[in-house]
Design goal:
This protein has a single domain, classed as Alpha-Beta Plaits. The mean pLDDT is 88. It has a 4-stranded antiparallel sheet. By secondary structure, it is an alpha+beta fold. The chain has 3 helices and 4 strands. This is Antibiotic biosynthesis monooxygenase. It comes from Teichococcus deserti.
Length: 113
């Protein structure tokens, strides 16, 4: 199994009354295709008063594998077709982080190197 070395983090906010609907849409249209290609995917939901923020973290062996999935620069935002309908504002960037060590979640530990 390849080790994750890169984490790609996306965040988007929706109004609370549309959060459940968006969560299902995001899972079907965004997460399921991602699960087929990334090493792992995590989704988070945070209640923030009138809004709900969704965070998706996908793990990759390298930036090149992300680029093969997106078909372009993996740092570019790829909005789902209905995102403008749901999201309070369209995110303008994703965060790309180098994973320096990992412990737990059934993955073999690794250290920087």
């Amino acid at each position: 199994m390849q080790q994750p070395r890169i984490a790609r983090i996306w965040r988007g906010r929706v109004l609370r009354d549309r959060a459940d609907e968006y969560e299902l849409y995001n899972y079907e249209a965004g997460i399921l295709p991602l699960v087929e290609r990334a090493l792992a995917v995590q989704t988070f939901r945070e209640e923030l008063g009138a809004e709900v923020e969704f965070t998706t973290i996908s793990y990759w062996p390298d930036v090149e594998s992300m680029a093969r999935f997106t078909g372009r620069d993996p740092t570019d935002i790829h909005h789902l077709r209905r995102d403008p309908e749901f999201l309070v504002s369209l995110p303008s960037a994703v965060q790309i982080l180098q994973l320096r060590s990992s412990h737990g979640f059934g993955l073999p530990p690794f250290e920087p190197g």
